[in-house]
Amino acid sequence: MTEPPRLAVRSTRKRFPGVQALDDVSLEVRPGEIHALLGENGAGKSTLGKVIGGVYAPDTGEMDLDGTPLRGLDEHMAAGLGIAIVHQEGSLVSQLTVAENVFAGHPITKSFGRVDRAEIRRRTKAIMSDMGVEIDPGAMVYSLSAAQAQIVEIAKGLSHDLRLLILDEPTAALTLTETKRLFVLLRRLKETGVAVIYISHRLAEIFELCDRVTVLKDGRVTGTRDVQHTTMDELIRLMVGREVLFQRGPAPTVGDVILEVDHLVSPPVVEDISFTVRAGELVCLAGLVGSGRSEACEAIFGVHRPSSGTIRLKGREVQFGGPWDAIAAGIGMMPEDRKDGGLFLDHSVAQNISATVLHTVSRRGVISKRMTEELADRFIKMLRIATPSPWQTLDNLSGGNQQKVLLAKWLAPEPALLIVDEPTRGVDVGARAEIYRILGDLKARGLAIVVVSSDLPEVLTLADRIIVIAAGRSVGELPGEGATEEDVLRLATRYTRLDAVEKVA
Amino acid sequence: MNDVQAETASEQDSTRPPSASARPSLASRILVTLAESRPLTLLVLIAVLVIGMSVLYPNNFPTPSNISAVMLNAAQNGILVTGMMLLMIAGVFDLSIGSILALAGVWAGVVVHVWGYPAPAGLLVGLAVGIAAGAFNGFLVTRVGINALIATLGTLAIYRGLTYVTAGTGVTPISDEFKAYGQTVILGFQTPFWIMLAIVGTFAWAIARTAFFRQFYFIGGNARAAKLSGIRVARLTVVGFVIMGLLAGLAGVIGASRLNSAVVSAGISVELSVITAAVLGGASLRGGEGSVIGGVLGVMFIALVQNAMIINSIGIFWQPIVTGSVLLLAVSLDRFKRSRRT
Question: Which pTM value belongs to this model?
Answer without folding.
Answer: 0.77
